[in-house]
Amino acid sequence: MDRFTLEALGLQKSFGGVRAVDQVSFGVRPGEMLALIGPNGAGKSTCFNLLNGHLKPDAGRVKLLGQDITGLAPRRVWKRGVGRTFQITATFGSMTVRENVQLALQSHRGELARIWAPAWRLRGGQADTLLERVGLAGQAKRPCSVLAYGDLKRVELAIALSNNPRLLLMDEPTAGMAPQERVGLMALVAEIARERGMSVLFTEHDMDVVFGHADRVLVLDRGRLIAEGTPDEVRGNALVQEVYLGSGFEPEPEAEAPLEAPEC
Amino acid sequence: MENLLLQGLNGLASASSLFLVASGLTVIFGVTRIVNFAHGSLYMLGAYLAFSIVTSLPRGHAGFWGGVVLAALAVGVIGALLEMLLLRRIYRAPELFQLLATFGVVLVVQDVALLVWGAQDLLGPRAPGLRGSVELLGLRFPLYELVLIGIGPVVLGLLLLLFKRTRWGTLVRAATQDREMVGALGVNQRWLFTSVFFLGSLLAGLAGALQLPRESVNLHMDLATITEVFVVVVVGGLGSLPGAALAALLIGELHAFGILIFPKITLVLVFLVMAVVLVVRPRGLFGKAQVAQAAVASVAEPVLGRAPAQLKWLGFFALVVAVAAPPFLAGDYALIVLTDMAIAVLFAASLHFIMGPGGMASFGHAAYFGIGAYGAALLTKWFAAPMVPALLAAPFCAGLAGVLFGFFCVRLSGVYSAMLTLAFAQIAWSVAFQWVELTGGDNGVLGVWPDPWATKLNFYWLALGCSVMGTLALRRIALSPFGYALRAQRDNTLRAEAIGINAFEMRWVAFVLAAGFAGVAGGLFAFAKGSVFPTALDIPRSVDALLMVLLGGVQTLAGPLLGALAFTGLHEQLVRATDYWRLVLGGVILLLVLAFPQGLAGAVRQWWEGRRHG
Lengths: 264, 614
What we know:
The complex is a heterodimer of chains A (264) and B (614). In chain A, 36% of the residues lie in helices and 23% in strands. In chain A, strands 6-7-8-3-9-10 form a six-stranded mixed β-sheet, with helices on both faces. Chain A has a four-stranded antiparallel β-sheet with strand order 2-1-4-5, covered by helices on one side. Chain A starts with 5 loop residues before the first strand and ends with a helix. Chain B has 614 residues and is an all-alpha fold. Chain B starts with a helix and ends with a helix. About 1% of the residues of chain B have low confidence. Chains A and B meet through helix 2 and helix 3 of A and helix 19, helix 20 and helix 21 of B.
């Protein structure tokens, strides 16, 4: 058993002279919920995109279960056992909820080359099981284009689970949701992660979500990792407080405001 | 040496008028995102109007130049009206519907011109004071051409000034980059779009009017021009004015020197260049990536599903009639029309496969139809192959072409991809046209007769069988895991990639399959007609296929079927009933576009579901 499910080693990425991600190293342990936080522009999204294959790092390596996956295309990263959800939900609007999940399952089983088999006959039962697990059994036959936002997030989750991932990458999983729904969704993710022994790495702005569900927290600021530890350790870290509360840099009437603002 | 200079100047003159038309098209596209097929028709109208005005005004400078300016202004007004009365109503419809609407306009304008000005070529007056020629290095060069050479750069300069120095120009440039942002800033988009259409159409009209002293005015100017101009605009980069200028120069000179250097492949040269440019630079020379056009025209695609039982029975019943009725029909004519319909259905279904589930537009699907037809015909001609093996070979010929052409086309997106398909279709067409030793060129391949057992009736049954099986096969593939993956990359490329779908492979395979099925239709066509001519793969045939698919509606699997039947039936009846069938057909298309923006099948489905729920 590897010590880490996913390992980032000295990741570095610049955009035109700006170091968006600078010498970032960390590991995701098996079965843990790891949150990646930081103020706007700290490099969270860039960091995420280096892990999931959308961007190639200028330097550094990404290892999944001990194997080097640096620079692999996103679809290959997925095939190695990484599921992901997007900040703005991405589903297939011309398909029903069930078909969305079925397709992901078929892709995982290498069945996409079957041009003569009726798709609705394949993996329907497994899709239903997954949909049941995320609480969408009643919506299975509805087109994704008419679903409420919170439900779409759950569809994404079911899609992301369809390759039995060892690691789930969630970019701002609760962005755009009502506070009540946020807690519900993250509680569900945590529960599923525990059942499956799956690791979850997520970025998040809502501190209630972070401190309520993360086992450990990583804090990024201006591309650098400035703190790492349990929620309590991070909460008590002076550097983190300075970064978040500004301590003189920001006007600070409402400490909540910069935390809540979704990152663009 | 002198000869080269002369050719160079000739090239500059063509480049100049090409630029005038192209600049209008590119400005219109930049702001409205509409691929305006009717732009060539506006150019033709400019020439016809100039002819009428100039010949009715007193002779002299004022009469000629006044007439040219008046004609250009009139075309500008026509363009603005077109925008206000037609296109404005369908900006929110899917992109391809706007294309269909502009096709409708092309058809209508063609017949209006025929009605007003008649079928003969019209020779306009020469420009006063510019009849003569100048001496250059001992060679005579027409003075008017020199003036024309000057007009291009002057118009370019004026346009650049307009765009850089005026508030209106700034708005146009801003809208070209990010239309939504301009809307969000409170700019009146309606007025902006109408004025852009006015300017673009005016430029097309001006270019047409200026052709008056150079060449005769005729009814083929529209399509001939629009193809060339599309090439210029796409090579330059859609929406880019300097790009259009550079590309016009390139294409104009290519025409001039191509005749000297490659007389054998003149027709194909331009399209070869376009293909190369698009392969190397997928957005043209100066094209920029668009800021994502979120949600402006995005109508959520409906779920494809298994047809309701009633519809299946209806289809089955129609099929039984189609099989059983023909022996009781009198005469060969009905059988010929029915055979044409069966072939059209398969052809349209194959195009629909890449346009609907695949999400790729093709302006050159006739290539695969034609290659299938030529493949079968040439086998019978050169190897005396019997009908069945020749028919079996047709899809492989077409599929092979699909493997090659598709490899390049499916890498691009949107209009660029569609234009590359057009380029390859034109390359295939010019091979058929210019490789006379193999294909007989314009004289075609004759004597492609069916086997003796295949009487008109038997052949109809064969065509019907192939068409039904082909259409059902395409349907089955569309509903297979592969078909879903294909649709997935259309719906959301990022998400598709994130679940392991290789979009390029899916699109390529789909393209090859569509080409193969089009090839089957082409092979049948060859034996149905007993001959094949280059028209089997020309632009009008590609346009026919597009019309069938768009009429029926891209979003349903039954769409191409209905579209092909409606189009072929209507076309057949109209051609018999009136000389002005284009006018009627175009009018019908415009009405349909305005009334049913989801296509025939979409409208039927909506009516059906409304009845059930309501």
